[in-house]
Amino acid sequence: LPAIALGVLAATAFGTIFPLFSIIFSEMLNIFEILSPRTPENEEKYKDEATFWATMFVILGVSAMAVCVIDYTMFAISGEELTKRIRRTAFRTILYQDMSFHDNPANTTASLTSRLSSEASLLQGATGGQA
Predict the structure, then answer these.
(1) What are the start-end ranges of the H helices in 1-131?
(2) What does the pLDDT profile of the chain (131 residues) look like in tens digits?
(3) How far is 122 from 101, CA to CA, in rounded Å?
(4) Which residues have CB under 8 Å from 6's CB, separation 6+?
(5) Which end of the chain is more exposed for a tag (fewer CB within 10 A), N or C?
(6) Cα gap 111→69, rounded to integer Å
(7) Nearest to 76 by CA among 124, 15, 8
(8) Neighbours of 118 (CB within 10 A)
């Protein structure tokens, strides 16, 4: 559960990246309007403003990368835990079957092992946890 909670939190933070990008981009464009015409008097202010908003772009990019990595990692961890729990439950269920279940030619060791491996992996693919 903590992995899912962190994943949802990171996904929410990642969802704020593009609105923040639009705000920073509009502020960057405002520099051209506010400090127009470009004169030697406002040259220093122009550079300071441009440097500030360019730094904000870099910070936003690094933040987006970090949040995206946390997001994908946490959902991959929760998908792995789900798959492990399903395999454990399925294996326990196979072990508690009557002997007649294992005598059935459709339930050979190879088919049960294959089913245990493939069907749990399909569910993990549905959760988006496979790389």
Answers:
(1) 2-15, 17-34, 43-95, 99-103, 109-127
(2) 688 899 999 999 999 999 999 999 998 888 878 777 777 777 888 888 889 999 999 999 999 999 999 999 998 888 888 888 888 988 898 889 888 888 888 888 888 888 888 877 777 666 665 54
(3) 24
(4) 70, 74
(5) C
(6) 37
(7) 124
(8) 9
> How does 71-89 read in b/e, with b if 16+ C-beta sit within 10 Å?
bbebbbbbbebbbeebbee
Cβ distance 77 to 13 under 8 Å?
A: no
Identify residue 87 by its one-letter amino acid code.
R
Q: Which residues, including other chains, have CB under 8 Å from residue 85's CB and lie 6 or more apart? A: none
